[in-house]
Amino acid sequence: MNTVGENNKLVIDPVIFWSALIVILVASIPLVLYPEAGKAAVDGLLISFTGTFGWLYLLTGIGSFLFMVWLAYGPLGRIKMGAPDEQPEFKTVPWISMLFCAGIGISICNWAFVEPLYMLSGPPLGVEGGTTEAAEWAAMYPMFHWGVVPWALYLMPALPMAYVLYVRKVNVLRLSEACRGILGKAVDGPVGKLIDVIVIFSIVGGVGTSLGLSVPLVSALFQEMFGLADSFVLQMGILAAWTAMIAWSVFNGLNKGIQTLSNINAALGFLLLFFVLIVGPTIFLLNLWTNSVGLFLDNFFRINFWTDPVEKGSFVKDWTIFYWAWWIAYAPMMGLFVARISRGRTIKEIIVHGVGWGTLGCWAFFAIWGGYALDVQLSGAVDLQAILSNEGIPATVVAILKTLPVAWLVIPLFTLLCFVFLATTVDSSAYMLASVCTKKITGYQEPARWNRILWTIMLALVGIGLLSVGGLKAVQTSTILVALPMIPVLIIMAASLVRWAYNDFGAELSPRALAKEVVVQQYGDGKE
Length: 528
Known about the structure:
Number of strands: 0
Distance between the termini: 44 Å
Radius of gyration: 23 Å
Shape: globular
Number of helices: 21
Largest sheet: none
Order of helices and strands: HHHHHHHHHHHHHHHHHHHHH
Strand content: under 5%
């Protein structure tokens, strides 16, 4: 970890820093000043982007998953991110905790309860809403949207960046550097700067989406606990408190700040999961989860390639394309963050743990919280769909929590979980934004503290802009817009990784070398 003296040497790159700052301010300030015109503009962009490029988002998603399978179980899977004898910087459990909390954040608190309810009334693939079949699809589809494809997208930039840091030993924490294997010296010029500005814009847009969705949820929780009236002032107060917590975390860095919040978050999240599983309809939840896994496996390729070209319904655009764009927008932040915390691990280890545990963690939330919400609706205990239709997501989440035993305790704990969940995502993002803007930084250093805190404030500003515009469509559009230019960057990085690996380890990765290694492992080298 860097000392104060070393920290002073971490100078920002002015071209990247000021270009990104100006782009973000130009995009955010008009949303705050002219919310109605901003809403109309983003609605038009949403229709245009989803209609024109939906197929591209879907192919990027399934392509990333297949690429990760090939990397993990092919010859490149054995490559270690670091020296051959280098041990991982973080133990496995804290590493998985940081990875999961940074990648998911408060979004899962927002969607785990309500996404199945949306899909119960508007299911995919022409299924009739409100039926038994619709309920089964409503339980399964979130597992698709939060499963192996999203986590594969997250790792697309992570592996090339980790390779740059710990195998090639380059002292730059920028995704443009991970494109050098294909772009060569063009990375040092305007092309490289453009890539880094796109990366920053993508990170800010993705995290801004989480802020725009999450502040109203916590506002509703505060209203329930303290009898407050809903207001923009309340939302700004919550955002200010969040910003202070996140600033503390990024100020204290990876080990003291981010790792601590991630550990608290994981423990609290799984405590609430276990509580709902035990006090809820346990057998129903387990049966529904098992059924959902079977339905997912049976329809995996169909749903990954489904574009609904003839009927042209809104489901794919509103859900799958939005989600894939969201994950792509988040991928640069996650790529940089996972690369930074994965020193000493092999490519296969990063993929198997990242995709495996990330997917299982998300599935657990949707199986238990989502399954519980479906049970409340289907049993007729509370008409959650009416609340969702008339009052929105925050009011629906509060209504679900109030059906649980000891709701007076559950709601404050859930509110705390929301606070810490978002903090772990935004502090990771601010940390990586500061790293991208730093001229030279090794995988063993942290960016300057003032730089980290500045980006925390900038992320809050974007959140204010999206809150001013209001509505899910504004959030969806910001995500889809910033994700599109990231797709070619992801492809270039993947190609760079493969090219570098075969250039650096070509002889060791040949079929003959791999076959010889298997024989040696099975029978020994014959020397006694």
